[in-house]
């Protein structure tokens, strides 16, 4: 029993073990139920979830930690106990009045979520109502050749706002009251401070600068789109359609689904990335009964225990349909992304499992920085020339890369401004005086922010962004913006220092040393500055957006030719050692396993290839 232990060092050790135990029990059940494995049990899932929540929410344990902190401690013990306190404070509210308020907020959020899930979303076209999820509505908006249909789909997206706004207003007010009672300026301020370790003011100093510097680029891109496709292309229901091309289809032959695992493994190995003896389960394909969202979780967080190194265990799933056009490209980007998260968490070397788990106090910005940096490589000519090969062994032609860049580069700023609109909107909401938090005002502000930040109404109306509604994901969208800023700053740093990123083992070494080893024990901004020797800013991102297309294409062509000459460091099918056991699974079926295959990972990949081939 932790509560009765009197020695701090014994407490620390048992605490770490207990956390590891409840964390793993829950995550193992999470995987079993979501993958619908034999013998999985919903009641075990909720029992173990309850145990994890109870542990993280144990106010008595927090008090005990705080008691220990008043004693004489070794620096190592103090550090551990401070971390426990920090973790607990992400989950425990000590003031009884605040506890009551939080209960009320949870209840209202659950009601809103329930209502939103049951909303009959869709669009009316040619007198007929079509049920459609928000994902489908957006697909219609970017693919339908009929403007009237796109317009109707957009109206469907706009119908979410009026539906959620009334309850959302009540939630905003309560969240603010709650944050103020805990001593914060507003709810947004509280969330930023808890997640990132710096306040709202510091955050918006960075975001305002990015907004200011990217504004002229936005204007230029909007003018360009209007010039090329006509002024009506700027309407929210026409924008995505007018930019969409057939590039996905043309790229498809060079990204065969069954080769994605091998390409990811070889390119990570060439970057010098290893996984410190971790194990990874990969369940990539869709099937009946499988959970309908992809995810990557870590049942076993890596840590340095008193008995020695404990490697991480990763479960990773996606919903690929190998025969669908574009599935190979998506699978590859997902592998680079989630494989990046996994590399990060596998290489956290600290004396507690709390530093290497994905929940708070690990921030979104810190976590996404790793995965977004690694998936960004797929867009580089230097990467595609080495790894984008068709089934019959032909490398992606330069002309296709050039077309992709010409189609997309000049409009990239739209994505930045669309991301930026969310934190600007949320800041305004939580800064409104309580008596002004009304449905009319909130809907008006949503439109105003879209006009100001995106230059016109957005194809994705702000009130349709699901993140702003639920507690966990509200007031954290800025994390993605910060991560993308850091991705560009990190890329700039490596390119300046080493000249190249793809297939450069120094990159993996630096990521491990500067970004991964510390886990969440260090502040994200400090980590970025530690590697790049500069405070985090949007300058590197702005520079990429400002780059002239012709100049960029010229440079990329040189990179393409260089990469063709050099070839990938590890050839297709060659054995690489990621210091990881990779199990390729499909529900209960283990398709291949690098630990038992005589040819290791490359053997496991070729068995998987054959398995995919027989699916068709
Ligand atoms: Zn991610």
Automatic annotation (TrEMBL):
Keyword Nuclease: no
Cofactor(s) for this UniProt protein: Zn(2+)
Superkingdom assignment: Eukaryota
Domain (Peptidase M3A/M3B catalytic): residue spans on this chain: 141-544
Coiled coil ranges: none
Keywords: Hydrolase, Metal-binding, Metalloprotease, Protease, Zinc
GO molecular function, one term: metalloendopeptidase activity
Cofactor remark from the record: Binds 1 zinc ion.
Gene Ontology BP annotations: peptide metabolic process; proteolysis
Electron transport as UniProt keyword: no
Name assigned to this protein: Peptidase M3A/M3B catalytic domain-containing protein
Family stated for the protein in its record: Belongs to the peptidase M3 family.
């Amino acid at each position: 029993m932790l509560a009765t232990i009197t020695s701090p060092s014994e407490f620390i050790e048992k605490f770490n073990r207990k956390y590891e135990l409840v964390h793993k029990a829950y995550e193992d059940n999470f995987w079993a139920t979501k993958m619908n494995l034999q013998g999985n049990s919903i009641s075990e899932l909720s029992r173990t979830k309850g145990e994890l929540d109870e542990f993280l929410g144990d106010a008595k344990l927090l008090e005990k930690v705080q008691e220990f902190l008043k004693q004489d401690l070794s620096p190592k013990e103090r550090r551990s106990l401070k971390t426990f306190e920090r973790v607990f404070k992400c989950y425990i509210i000590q003031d009884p009045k605040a506890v009551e308020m939080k209960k009320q907020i949870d209840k209202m959020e659950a009601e809103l979520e329930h209502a939103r899930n049951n909303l009959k979303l869709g669009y009316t076209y040619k007198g007929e109502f079509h049920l459609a999820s928000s994902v489908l509505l957006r697909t219609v908006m970017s693919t339908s050749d009929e403007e009237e249909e796109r317009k109707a789909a957009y109206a469907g997206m706009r119908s979410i706002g009026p539906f959620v706004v009334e309850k959302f207003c009540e939630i905003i007010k309560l969240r603010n009251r709650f944050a103020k009672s805990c001593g914060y300026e507003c709810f947004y301020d509280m969330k930023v401070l808890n997640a990132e370790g710096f306040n709202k003011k510091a955050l918006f100093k960075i975001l305002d600068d990015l907004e200011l510097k990217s504004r002229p680029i936005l204007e230029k891109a909007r003018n360009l789109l209007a010039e090329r496709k006509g002024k009506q292309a700027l309407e929210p229901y026409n924008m995505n359609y007018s930019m969409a091309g057939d590039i996905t289809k043309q790229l498809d032959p060079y990204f065969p689904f069954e080769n994605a695992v091998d390409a990811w493994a070889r390119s990570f190995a060439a970057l010098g990335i290893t996984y410190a003896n971790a194990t990874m389960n990969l369940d990539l394909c869709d099937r009946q009964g499988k959970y309908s969202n992809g995810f990557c979780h870590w049942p076993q967080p890596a840590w340095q225990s008193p008995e020695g190194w404990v490697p991480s265990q990763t479960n990773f799933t996606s919903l690929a349909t190998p025969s669908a056009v574009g599935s190979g490209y998506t699978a590859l980007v997902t592998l680079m992304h989630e494989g990046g998260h996994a590399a990060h968490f596998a290489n956290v070397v600290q004396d507690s499992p709390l530093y290497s788990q994905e929940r708070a106090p690990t921030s979104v910005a810190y976590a996404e920085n790793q995965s977004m940096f690694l998936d960004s490589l797929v867009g580089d000519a230097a990467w595609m020339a080495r790894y984008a090969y068709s089934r019959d062994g032909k490398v992606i032609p330069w002309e296709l890369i050039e077309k992709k860049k010409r189609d997309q580069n000049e409009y990239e700023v739209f994505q930045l401004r669309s991301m930026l609109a969310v934190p600007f909107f949320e800041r305004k909401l939580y800064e409104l005086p309580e008596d002004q938090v009304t449905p009319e005002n909130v809907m008006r502000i949503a439109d105003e922010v879209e006009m100001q930040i995106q230059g016109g109404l957005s194809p994705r109306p702000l009130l349709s962004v699901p993140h702003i509604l639920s507690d966990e994901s509200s007031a954290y969208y800025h994390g993605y913006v910060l991560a993308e800023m850091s991705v560009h700053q990190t890329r700039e740093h490596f390119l300046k220092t080493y000249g190249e990123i793809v297939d450069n083992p120094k990159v993996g070494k630096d990521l491990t040393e500067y970004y991964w080893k510390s886990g969440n024990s260090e502040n994200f901004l400090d980590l970025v500055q530690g590697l790049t020797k500069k405070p985090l800013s949007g300058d590197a991102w702005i520079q990429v957006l400002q780059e002239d297309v012709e100049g960029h294409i010229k440079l990329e062509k040189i990179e393409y030719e260089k990469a063709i000459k050099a070839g990938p460091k590890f050839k297709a099918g060659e054995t690489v050692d990621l210091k990881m056991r990779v199990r390729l699974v499909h529900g209960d079926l283990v398709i291949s396993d690098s630990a038992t295959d005589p040819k290791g990972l490359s053997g496991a990949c070729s068995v998987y290839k054959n398995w995919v081939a027989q699916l068709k």
